[in-house]
Amino acid sequence: MTQYQLTRYGMADERFTLESLASAAGVHPALVEKFVAYGLVAPMRIEDGVLWFDVAAVKRLRTIGRLRRDLSINLPGIAVAFDLLARLELLQRELADLRREVYAPPLPRKSGNGNRRR
Q1: What CATH number is given to the structural domain containing 69?
Q2: Domain coverage including residue 46
Q3: pLDDT tens digits, residue range 85-107?
Q4: Which residues contact 64 (CB under 8 A, 6 or more apart)?
């Protein structure tokens, strides 16, 4: 049985270097470099040649690891899966917006506009 380790990170604006990101995700820094080169993980900023990542990159690296380990998906397959997930999330947001528009209560009509029939 697979055992998962839960780690709670601080602030959402916390930043990680490539090495600290690799450590937090439990992978080798060279593997993180490979994922960055492949476009699976992107730094939020580059300062003086140092790649900086946000907390979301930890989750993404762990997801990549699970897809590779548990489902034996290769890197091109993971890229396709991430693209499909991004499209799905966009469509879900659009659907939620449309539902709000369709099911929104009607706006009250102004009375006394002078167009009454007698």
Answers
A1: 1.10.1660.10
A2: 15-73
A3: 999 999 999 999 999 989 888 77
A4: 35, 40, 41, 78
